[in-house]
Amino acid sequence: MEIGTVQIISLLLAYLLGSIPTSVWFGKIFYKIDLRDHGSGNAGATNALRVFGNKVGALILFLDALKGVGAIALSAFSVDILNNDNHFVIFQLLLGSAALLGHVFPVFAGFRGGKGIATLAGIVTAMFPIAILICIGVFLVVFLLTRYVSMGSMLGAIAFPIVIIFFSSTDPLLAEIIFSVAVAIFVPFTHKKNIKRLLKGEENKLVFRKKGIANDLNK
Fold first, then answer.
1. Model pTM score
2. H-type helices in 45-191, by residue range?
3. Per-residue model confidence as pLDDT tens digits over 194-218
């Protein structure tokens, strides 16, 4: 697969799109705080739910997922160039990976981002709409039983390659299998601290609140 100017620009844009630190900017603009200084110290949607409350946290979750969808949408500029289906899918996965890298290491926020779960969900939704439903189902079952977002996220990610390999309606491409396995490794890797807390019984359970702690900080 040849990468030309259009593809390089698209990959750069995907990274910059992923680098938009939604929760960090939202906290600084509306609450005059840096989300990373509160709660778990993470810039992801889960911590945003804790610090900003349900409505704002859900909005940030949606916007972070939208970054993943938007990154995949950039492949539209290469439809006529990458006319090999296999190459096109590989390029879409590269775009998604660039956005995910941007979310975790955002150039606009000192390279301190979130764990990438919401953005990853957007990528998988755009690329594997059936698989995402099953993975979300796994997440919800685990979360509702334990109230641990981290555990649900990790088990949902681990289920992803199983779904791709054994439950796809068509034979998955090698690139899709590799991507799904990479996701199953990447998500637990970004949750190393959570795993340690889970083993010690110190992991925080997510409790939904109308108002987060940020409201108290501004009183």
1. 0.91
2. 45-52, 54-73, 85-104, 117-127, 129-146, 149-166, 174-190
3. 999 999 999 989 887 777 666 666 5
